[in-house]
Amino acid sequence: MKNNYRAPFFILLAIFATTIGLIIPSVLDDQQVLLPAVKNGQLEKIDLNSTLIGVNKDSLDAKFPYSAYLKSDNYEDAASIQKDLDLLDSLIGDKMLVRGLISAVLTDSLYNQKKSSIENSNLDSLNYRLQWAEKFKYYGEADPSSENQLLFQSIHDYWLRKIANNLTDYSNTNEKAKFNFQYRYLTAKCNEKRYNVSVKISSLEKVIQNILGNRWAHLFEASWNQATILQKIIIAILLIATSICYLITFKALIRKK
Asked: Which among 237, 172, 233, 234 has a CA at the least distance from the CA of 198?
């Protein structure tokens, strides 16, 4: 009877280990996805003045060289974009129509052209596009015209949302993405600008976060709500058995004294 408290102790230890195994799923060992770097070649500017000879309001959409423009260097910096806006304003005479066109070119049209690398979450491509899109916020702040401010801000907003959404999708399909430095950098940049990225975390990480945050009630509620009926029955049995073991151990320690 001298060591009769040891058996309940080891039973309790086994029950605890079993409970952990039931509640916390094993962490998946995903392999790191290696993404190819994007190599940007030397781009040439396109002369819209010679391309759009005889264009007017009605023919602008049909005659605008979308593909050639997106393969050019014209939209890489504010000075080039401003030059094209001034040229189109002089040809068309309708600032809102011109800015509506350029907005469509540098958002949906550009996205569709780069869709493969963006939707496949090529981090190098996303990084390059993020740096490009960030500049439009400053272009808008530096430009005195309200039309251009609205244009630049809309382009900035469009791409930051697209990039944040693609980073979220990448996290959902690559559990170890959060350990990738480039991914964490891009996520931090988007979150900093309030374009939040939802990073997927494992069940084990959620448990650890709740424990470190002393959110015991939330931890129990989440585990209970996600458990099946069978798991709830098993947990109930384990809790009862644990209580009995504690009682036996407590009595044994008292008798020993």
From this structure: 172
250 plus 192 within the same structural domain: no
Whether 68 and 101 map to the same domain: the answer is yes
DSSP 23-80: HSPPPP-PPPPP-PPP---------HHHHTTT--TTTHHHHS-HHHHHTSSTTSSHHH
210-251 pLDDT per residue, tens: 454 555 555 556 566 666 777 778 777 877 888 888 788 777
Q: Rounded to whole angstroms, how far apart are CA atoms 71 and 148?
A: 22
| Alpha helices (H) along the chain | 6-23, 48-51, 60-63, 66-70, 78-92, 95-104, 110-113, 115-119, 123-142, 146-173, 181-192, 203-212, 216-226, 229-256
Domain of residue 183: give its range.
Answer: 121-201
Nearest-CA neighbor of 132 among 111, 147, 148?
A: 111
Distance (Å, rounded) from C-alpha 241 to C-alpha 249?
A: 12
Q: Is 199 helix (H, G, I), strand (E, B) or coil?
A: coil
- Give helix 146-173 / helix 123-142 axis angle, nearest 10°: 160
pTM: 0.65
Same domain, 179 and 215: no
- pLDDT tens profile 164-173: 999 998 888 8
